[in-house]
C-alpha cells in the first residue's frame, strides 16, 4: 500500500503538531479566542499544579452566529463549563495522591453538585445531579473510572473534557476511527486500559466489517501508540481519559442514551458541512462522501422579497389599528377564569368521588358521562353559554327550557350550522339549502328572527353555498341567546331545581345524603385551596 | 389603511425601513398598555398547596422513540406513534394494547386520535374499529399532501376536516372525505412545527408555531394571518391554547415557555430557570389553565404556575427526551411520550386536604347519629 507511509508521515506530523501545542500550554500561556472554523486541534490539557492561565472569555468553540438549536445548548453548557473551571469561582480541581500513583486534574462529584446548586440556583441536589449528568452525557466532563456518563453526589472523581473534543466542534467520527482507537487500546499493556466487554464486541464486529483494510487500521493504531508514548506520563493519563470519554459519547455503552442523536426535523439545517469533523486521527474513510447526505446547504429561511415586505407592512398597519386591552384588565380576566375553574381541575382539586387513576375506580367517569349530572357539573353550566352547550346534558336542558318558551328554533339553528361546518365537503351545498328552508325561507317551519342586514348577507352567501355561509347569522343568533334566553334559563325553575338538587328525599338515606351534601360543601369551602394554613402545619 | 409605501419604484430597502418604523411604532403602542405584569397582579392569588404529582403507569411496547401521543375522548385511551413505524392504541387505564398498526413510513411525527402524519409528506387517516382482526393498515387513506414533512395535525371538532402543519412552511385545511385542500395558510418563513385549534365552539381560529421563531394566529375561513408574536429566540416546537381561548403558550428550543394573550397582543409571561438549559419540546395546560406542563430535551417535565410564573414542581422519570405531553380530556391525568420508547401517565395525588375533609365528614356523621339516637330515644 503506497498510501500508508505517506499517511503515517502525515500522522506523525499531526501528532507532532499536537505535541508542540501541548508543550506550549504546559507553561502559562495567554489563551486567545479560538479561530472560527479552524481545523487544528486545540488541546488544552489540564496539566498538574500550574494551570495554564486561561482568559476569562469562554473557551467555547461555537460560532456566535450559529443559532441552530443544538448549538444554542452547547453555548450555554460551555459557558457553565468555563465558569465551573474558573480558578477563583469554580470547583477545586486537584491532583490526588492515591497509593503509588497520582491522579491528576480531578474534582469530586460532590463538589460539582454543590457548585451547580449554588451557581444555577438549584435547591434540590437531585436536580443538580440530573443536569450535571446531562452535561456529562453530552461530553463536557466524565467520571475517570467509568464509561457511563453520569454525575454522582459523592467522592467519585471527574475530569473535564478538552475543548478539542467538545460536541460543538461538530464531530461525526467514523467507524474507521473507532476501529483505530479500539485497536490501539489493545496494544497498550496497562490493565486499566483493557477493553470492556461491549468494546471487545464492537472491536470484533469492526474487524469483520473492515476485514480487507484491517492491516491499514492496525498500522494507524500502531502509529498512534508511538505518538502517545512520546508524551509525558501525567499528560498521557489525562489525554487517554479524555479520548475515552469522547468515544463514550459517540459510541455509548449499550443501554445508555446516545446524546448525539438529533431531532430529524431539524437535521437539514444542523451543521455547516465544512465544519464537520470526521476523524480524530486524521484518517478519512475511503470512498465515503466528504459530507453526509443530510447536510444540504442551509438556505433555510426564505429570503424576504419585496412582496413579502409589502405584505408585512399591510399586516403591521392592521395591527396598529387593532384595539387592545390593558395588561391590568387582561391579568384580572386570566386570573378570574382560572379561579373559576380551579375546583374542576383534577390536578389542583381532587375530583369527587375520586380521581379514577388514583383509586382505580372509574365511577368519576361514569358520573361525568351520565345523564344525571352532579351538582358541580350543573354549576358549570352557569359559567357561560358555551359551558352549558358543551355538556350534552346541559344542552338538552337548555333546549327543553327554550321549548317551554317557544324559542327553541334559535338553538336548533345554531346546532345545525355547527353541523354544517363538520360534514364532508360534497354534502355542504345541499345541507346549506336545507337549513335555509327550515329556518330562514318564507314560511319556514322553524323561522328564526334575523335583522334585515344579516338576512340580506346570508341570502347573498347562499348563492354560492359554503360551510361558512351562515357565520354572520349564527353569530347574531348566538349573541341573542346569550343575552336573552340564557340569563332567563339560569333563573328558571328547571335549572335552579337541578342546581339546588331539590330531589325527593329517600327517607333516612335521603337525610344522610343531604347531610353529606352539606358536609361536602362545608368541606369544599374549608379545604382545597383555602386550606393553606392547615397545609403548612401538616 | 393603505400602506404609504406601496408606490411603484419603491426599493426593497425603503420598504424594509418603513416596515422597521412600523414595528417600532407598534411596540410603542403596545407598551403603553403594559401597565403591570401578570405575576404582579397574581400575587394576590393563593399559592397552590404543594402539588404531589406521581407517575404510576409506564406503557412499554414501542421499539424506538415515541414521537407523538394523543388522548381519546373516552379519557382513558391513548394513541402513540413511534420511530419504529408503528402506531399503537392503548387503554392507559388497564395498560392493554388494543391496536397496533404498522406503517410504511418509519418516521411518524404526529398522530391525533386517528390521523397520522409524517416524513413521507402525507397525512393519513386510519379508521379504527373494535374488530381487532381488521387489517387497519389497508384502510389507510391519504388525505393531506405537503411538499415537505408534515409536523402536526389536528381534527377540527369533527372527523371530516383535518388541519396540518408542515416543514414546507405552510398550514393547510383538508376535507377528509375527498382529500381536497380547503384552505392554505402562508406566512411562516420556515418550517411550521406545531399547531393548535382555538377551544371555543364558536371560534374559527388556530395558532401555529415554527422555526422562524414566530407564533401566528390564523382565521380558518379566510386563510388570513390575524396576529403574530415574535419573542422567542429559537424554534417554537409547540403551541397550545389556554382553555379560555384568550391566550396561548409556546415551548421553544431557547429553553423557555412563553405565555401570550391575544387581547393584549403581547407576551405576558416567560417561564424559565437558570437550571433549564435544554429546549422545551412540548406543552399543555391543565383544565383550569393554572398549570402548564412542559416537556424538555433534558428528559424532564416542568410544571409551571401559569399566573405566578414560578415552577410548581418537576417530574423526573423519562430516560430520554420528552417528545410530547398531553393532559387527558377531562384533566385527570397527564400523558407523556419520550425518545426512551415509553409513555407515562402521571396524576395528582390527593394532598392532606382530603383526609381532613373526611375527618370533618366523620365528625358530622357521628354528631348526626347521636342526635338521631337521642331524638328516637325520646
UniProtKB/TrEMBL annotation, chain A:
Keywords: Signal transduction inhibitor. One of its GO terms (biological process) is intracellular signal transduction. SMART domains: DEP, G_gamma, GGL, RGS. Residues 1-13, 49-61 have a biased composition (Low complexity). One of its GO terms (molecular function) is GTPase activator activity. The keyword Nucleotide-binding does not apply. The keyword Acetylation does not apply. Residues 30-43 have a biased composition (Basic and acidic residues). One of its GO terms (cellular component) is cytoplasm. Gene3D superfamilies: 1.10.1240.60, Regulator of G-protein Signalling 4, domain 2, Transducin (heterotrimeric G protein), gamma chain, Winged helix-like DNA-binding domain superfamily/Winged helix DNA-binding domain. Residues 1-69 are annotated as: Disordered. CDD domains: DEP_RGS7-like, GGL. InterPro entries: DEP_dom, G-protein_gamma-like_dom, GGL_sf, RGS, RGS6/7/9/11, RGS6/7/9/11_DHEX_sf, RGS_DHEX, RGS_sf. Residues 384-499 form the RGS domain. It comes from the Eukaryota. Residues 87-162 form the DEP domain. This is Regulator of G protein signaling 6. It comes from Oreochromis niloticus (Nile tilapia).
TrEMBL record, chain B:
PROSITE patterns: WD_REPEATS_1, WD_REPEATS_2, WD_REPEATS_REGION. WD repeats lie at residues 59-91, 143-184, 185-228, 229-270, 315-345. Gene3D superfamilies: YVTN repeat-like/Quinoprotein amine dehydrogenase (2.130.10.10). Pfam families: WD40_Gbeta (PF25391). One of its GO terms (biological process) is signal transduction. SMART domains: WD40. Residues 9-39 form a coiled coil. It comes from the Eukaryota. Keywords: Coiled coil, Repeat, Transducer, WD repeat. Belongs to the WD repeat G protein beta family. This is Guanine nucleotide binding protein (G protein), beta 5b. It comes from Oreochromis niloticus.
